[in-house]
Amino acid sequence: MPRAIEDVIAAARDFLGERITTNVALREHHSHGQDPHKPHLPDAVAFIETGEEASRLLALCHAQNIPVVPFGAGSSLEGHVTPVRGGISLDLSHLTEILDVSQPDMDCRVQAGVTREQLNEHLRDQGLFFPVDPGTPHCTIGGMCGTRASGTNAVRYGTIRENVLGLTVVLADGTMIKTGGRVRKASNGYDLTHLFIGSEGTLGVIMEIQLRLHPIPDAISAATCQFPSLKGAVETVIAILQSGIPVARLELLDELQTQACIAYSKLEGLEPLPTLFLEFHGSKAGVEEQARQAEEIAASYEASSFAWAMDTETRTRLWKARHDVYWAVQGLRPGHKVLTADTIVPISKLDDAILGVKEDIAGSGLAATVVGHVGDGNFHTVILVPPEPDGMDRAWALDRRIVARALALGGSCSGEHGVGIGKREFLEAEHGPEALAVMRSIKKALDPRGILNPGKIFLN
Amino acid sequence: MPRAIEDVIAAARDFLGERITTNVALREHHSHGQDPHKPHLPDAVAFIETGEEASRLLALCHAQNIPVVPFGAGSSLEGHVTPVRGGISLDLSHLTEILDVSQPDMDCRVQAGVTREQLNEHLRDQGLFFPVDPGTPHCTIGGMCGTRASGTNAVRYGTIRENVLGLTVVLADGTMIKTGGRVRKASNGYDLTHLFIGSEGTLGVIMEIQLRLHPIPDAISAATCQFPSLKGAVETVIAILQSGIPVARLELLDELQTQACIAYSKLEGLEPLPTLFLEFHGSKAGVEEQARQAEEIAASYEASSFAWAMDTETRTRLWKARHDVYWAVQGLRPGHKVLTADTIVPISKLDDAILGVKEDIAGSGLAATVVGHVGDGNFHTVILVPPEPDGMDRAWALDRRIVARALALGGSCSGEHGVGIGKREFLEAEHGPEALAVMRSIKKALDPRGILNPGKIFLN
């Protein structure tokens, strides 16, 4: 271990004690996320419990040019938490305090390590909820900010981007700043909050988040709707959005994904056909009206079935099945790994994009499903990686084709999983070299020594 | 005129011809916005008709260190368009093309000089609308992006921030970049779109905007609701928001503002009392339900009246009156100028803020009304400036007190009008010196020579 990192660890021990460690098991745990990228051990793991500690540690690392990689729940899918150049894995999972909830303001302030499940549990009695739902219950709010996460509710409530009012951030040199605030909007200088959201730990370490909350709706209804063809499903999605029905969730599963969910989650009454899962929020009369309107639209696009329910049990089973698609797909081919592609296109191109992806899948000789947040134009291709030596390479090749197709259709290489390691190669094609140069100049202005999560977002 | 500016004008004449001019009347028109700040003449005005022209002109100005100040409709309220250090006023009002509207995607691409009225006129037949409504019909979309504008609809549809998907921007050295794109969300690198929104022309010149649109609702109802006290009105606002009623507009007028509107706009059936103006969007059954629920809530906070209507005429008259508050206030004291303060606080502090402001008004000896987008916590104090020599100083002094009060309550110095010249002095108190230093470092990274709208946002 070179001298600089040893010095940092020794100096940090003064205020972190045993919470900075070179224990191999802990370093291994912090060497990767839930992605198939190559793990890399950090030199040490630091469990931070206060902003002050993060600030002091960053200042030490800054002085010695030691990389710092923020780590929340480790549920990242694009290699964000892998310390590809060693250094310190800055574990924020001890920061689990919900600092303040204001019912009249419908907002709260949380530490970065609070999980969405923990927060919603805490809020339930107050009639409020935090809507952003990337599927993983234990993902942290800090991590969600880092990757600009979204999920099933974004079509109605927006992504994390629309639900963060302000941040506390520690900069590369240890300086602590507050961005935004508690107000709903403001025209008060540069929007630093949105600059840090989606910056994947490369511009600063997010310590606290001021979140917008929403009232728990009086009534919720869920629906499933099946189609003989994908086209009808996609056309229904567009028509529902244009009708102004304030749909809360609008998810598409292709026929193979539906089949996998039927088998894995024991979903009854569904055929292995392209399927929409929907959810409506509002007053009791309102959700009934929304469901009826959606049913009429689906019928006009030749849906073969439409079933809706207001009971909690049916609804919970449905969304549990949606959140378990990863496991359901893995269940199709035991022994296979899974690679999840994450692309987004303008809604009008969904049809082209998904039908094209299905051709790409067929051409690849791999098995894969399509499932996603189609109300936003975002969908995932869940690729089964064969357990052969070239399996992962073939899966990556398919992933690349899918991204290229999304870009050609005016879409993006990532809807919600982020750039991390896996999407760096696409950024220049997506943004152009000049816009990418602006991003680099901002990175350089905020982190001139390049210590914050190096090797992510930018290729070099 | 120093040599550098003469060189720029001569060189720009090659591609702009008579569209770059030193005509005094045009320079005077471009020396100020709709604000009481001291005007300053630009050295020349350039009417740009293409991005290419803007790019070439910026490159020339960059080479010669000549200030460039973007100018849209000139309706700014904080001195943004005043060329305080001379240079070129870059007039974008010829850029009025609506480049593309996609009905299935519910989005469009417009040039910076398109006005919101022009756009909504164009969209009407397609069943879509652009919701951001700062009140001035002829304000440009480019200008709205520059000041992070909002208005009466923001409580339901968000501000310009939530309704821009991507931008085309010319940077200080003439480089043109695209940010964002057409997709609804993405996790694809730094959020440059939101960095330029609200940057008031200090980081780049916005040339084109990809906008999110919304379906025109099936039904709209409007309501007025009066209260014996301001407290009841504010409590009703909070309760309506918490109830989850998706209110589309939620405006408060204090008793003096209501009195002014009754007189100026001939509003019938209203008393000079604290008043809420509301609007509901949805299905026919939906807006009836929303209005009924709001009425029940208002009654429980002792509203003295609640009247709602679904006919277009009543609605149009009501919102025309709301948009004419400036003139209505001026009508109270002919010969007075008007200074509009623009503060925002967390919703729970609205009561304290507004009651405090009313004390500040009383203490100042000036006449002023309070009116605003209280669904967001944003309100304006419309100050009548006496035609005495110290009138404007007294009005500024009151404005400062109001801002200090908002900051003390966790609010912001500007809800929607921007920083410009008038709010610069408050930014350090609001954000802290460290966050302000981050803003400065971004300014330096993107505009190292400081040619873009100098003298705005930052004090020096």
Structure in words:
The structure is a homodimer of 460-residue chains. Chain A is α+β, with helices and mostly antiparallel strands and 460 residues long. The first copy, chain A, folds into four domains: 3-93, Uridine Diphospho-n-acetylenolpyruvylglucosamine Reductase, domain 2 (2-Layer Sandwich); 98-215, Uridine Diphospho-n-acetylenolpyruvylglucosamine Reductase, domain 3 (2-Layer Sandwich); 219-326, 2-Layer Sandwich (Alpha-Beta Plaits), CATH 3.30.70; 333-423, Alpha-Beta Plaits, CATH 3.30.70.2740. Chain A is 38% helix and 21% strand. The first copy, chain A, has helices at residues 3-16, 24-29, 51-64, 116-123, 141-146, 154-157, 160-163, 192-196, 230-243, 255-265, 284-300, 312-323, 325-332, 350-364, 391-408, 427-431, 433-446, and strands at residues 20-21, 44-47, 68-71, 88-91, 98-102, 107-111, 128-129, 164-170, 176-180, 205-212, 214-215, 219-226, 247-253, 275-282, 305-309, 337-344, 368-373, 378-385. In chain A, the strands form four sheets. Chain A has a seven-stranded antiparallel sheet, with helices on both faces. A five-stranded antiparallel sheet of chain A has the order 5-6-10-8-9. In chain A, a hairpin with a 4-residue loop joins strand 5 and strand 6. The longest helix of chain A has 18 residues, at 391-408. The mean pLDDT of chain A is 96. Chains A and B meet through strand 9, helix 8, strand 11, helix 9 and helix 11 of A and strand 9, helix 8, strand 11, helix 9 and helix 11 of B.
